Amino acid sequence: MQKPIELILMRQLASYLAMPILIADREGNLLYYNQPAEAILGRRFAETGEMRSEEWVQTLPLYEEDGSPIPPERRPLLVALRERRVVHRRVRIQGLDGRSRRIESTVLPLDGQGGRSLGGAIIFWELDPS
Amino acid sequence: MRVTLWGTRGSLPSAGPETLRYGGNTSCVEVRGEDGTLLVLDAGTGIRRLGATVGEIPAVDVLLTHLHMDHLQGLGFFAPLYRPKVQVHIWGPPSTTMDLQARLVRYLSPPLFPVRLRELPCDLVLLDVPLGRFTIGALEVAAALVSHPGPTVGYRISDGRVAMAYLPDHEPALGARHFPEEPKWTSGYDLAAGVDLLIHDVQYADAEYPQYVGWGHSAIGHALAFAALAGARRLMTFHHNPTHSDDDLDRLIETARRGEPPFELIPGREGMTIAL
Ligand SMILES: [Zn+2]
Ligand SMILES: [Zn+2]
After folding, report:
1. How far apart are CA B250 and CA B247, in angstroms?
2. If we measure between CA atoms, which residue out of A93, A112, A109, A113 comes closest to residue A101?
3. What is the enclosing helix (H) or strand (E) of A41?
4. Are the beta carbons of B219 and B209 closer than 8 angstroms?
5. In a 10 Å sphere around its CB, with 0-12 CB exposed, 13-18 middle and 19+ buried, how is residue B214 labelled?
6. Distance between Cα B26 and ligand 1 center (Å)
7. pLDDT tens profile A17-73
8. Which pTM was predicted?
9. Best CA proximity match to A55, nearest among A15, A27, A85
10. Cβ of A5 under 8 Å from any chain B Cβ?
């Protein structure tokens, strides 16, 4: 199944931008992240590939800045998709390389014409780059 | 299914001695179902001559891919619009903020055009094209948004036996690192997958494309790669550049044929009919 054109263009744009971007479909399944995102997520996209929502919620856990875990339903992406609004917040993410990083993230719900919900794009950056 | 090309030119009507063989009228394609169902793809200047041939018909469906002028300019000259009792359905993409009616009125009203939509004698219905499948007469139509500036759809039309796809303005290579990429990340793929006939944008020679990235069109190399990826049985070149003469277009096709594409390559010429 081909992805909607809005997600195709978003991925192409993300592949050219120098800021870390991750793209998910409307169910929250991970579809793509760009090279700058690889440094924060701790693994190359070519090695991880697409991941089901339940799967990457487990493999890339999020924590509050004080270290308490963020349950799946309160993850910024899932809030943005459910409530169809922009979500902006600081969290800690444990990368696939095992390292924990403090990041700031903005999630944009991608709504197409005719009220179609297509997915979301997460733009994020590391707060204390080493 | 029978497919006739009434206008094959892109961007601007291009009448002149150098465009006699491929034609100078802009995008318009007639699709006839076995039961006589008549679909008109786009309303470029080619639609005027089509309108003169349709005779007494109860209904016609005009499917617009988008509202760029070269796909709309002939609409007001389509004879069935001026016949009472003919049902004319015009389908086209809404924008994110305006429906098709509001968008069309911008062209079909003074000062751009002397007649207003509501003054047309036919039984006119304007329809926002659904993104997905729907049925017109005996034909099944699928529409999907594709890579081109502004809301633009491509169409796939099937009669249950054969299928054709119409992507006159399409830049699937836009932003792709290595075109073609996987099918799932390729604009237009689902519409064109496995079709018997793919009518596709071939606005540029490969060497011309780098100057026009993002303008919404394909070089012939992109069209060939896209058709191969989609597994189309025939590729018909379309939306010819106004600056390309008949001889230029012959050369493009000749060069493409030397690459031995895995499908039949048909130069899209105004007036030609293909039975599928
Ligand atoms: Zn065009
Ligand atoms: Zn166009």
Report:
1. 5
2. A93
3. helix A35-41
4. yes
5. exposed
6. 8
7. 999 999 999 999 999 999 999 999 999 999 999 999 999 999 999 999 999 999 999
8. 0.95
9. A27
10. yes
pLDDT the model gives residue A114 = 86
Distance between CA A41 and CA A101 in Å, rounded?
A: 9
- Token couple for B62: 């005009």
**Fold of the domain spanning B2-272:** Metallo-beta-lactamase; Chain A (3.60.15)
- How do B197-201 and B163-167 pair as beta strands? parallel
Give the number of the ligand closest to the Cα of residue B45.
1
| A73: CATH | 3.30.450.20
Spans of all domains in chain B: 2-272
Q: Which of 103-132 (B) contact A at CB < 8 A?
A: 128, 131
CB contact under 8 A, A11 and B185: yes
Single-letter amino acid, residue B213: V
- The tally of domains found in chain A comes to 1
By residue count, chain A amounts to 130
**What is the full DSSP assignment across B92-103?**
E---SS--HHHH
The position carrying tokens 């709309």 is B72
Choose the closest CB to B177 out of A5, A6, A15.
A15
CB-based contact, B92 to chain A, within 8 Å? no
Distances (CA, A) of B37 to A50, B137, B140, B190: 43, 6, 11, 24
All residue ranges of chain B with pLDDT < 70 are none
Domain that holds residue A85: 5-126
Q: Which token pair is B206?
A: 């490969």
Q: Is B214 left (phi over 0), alpha (psi -120 to 50) or beta?
A: left
DSSP H helical ranges for chain B = 47-53, 100-105, 189-192, 220-230, 246-258
Residue whose C-alpha is closest to residue B199's, from B90, B273, B128, B89: B273
H or E element: which one contains A16?
helix A5-16
- Cα angle B206-B152-B255, degrees, rounded to a multiple of 5: 20
Summarize pLDDT for B153-167 with one digit per residue, the tens. Answer: 999 999 999 999 999
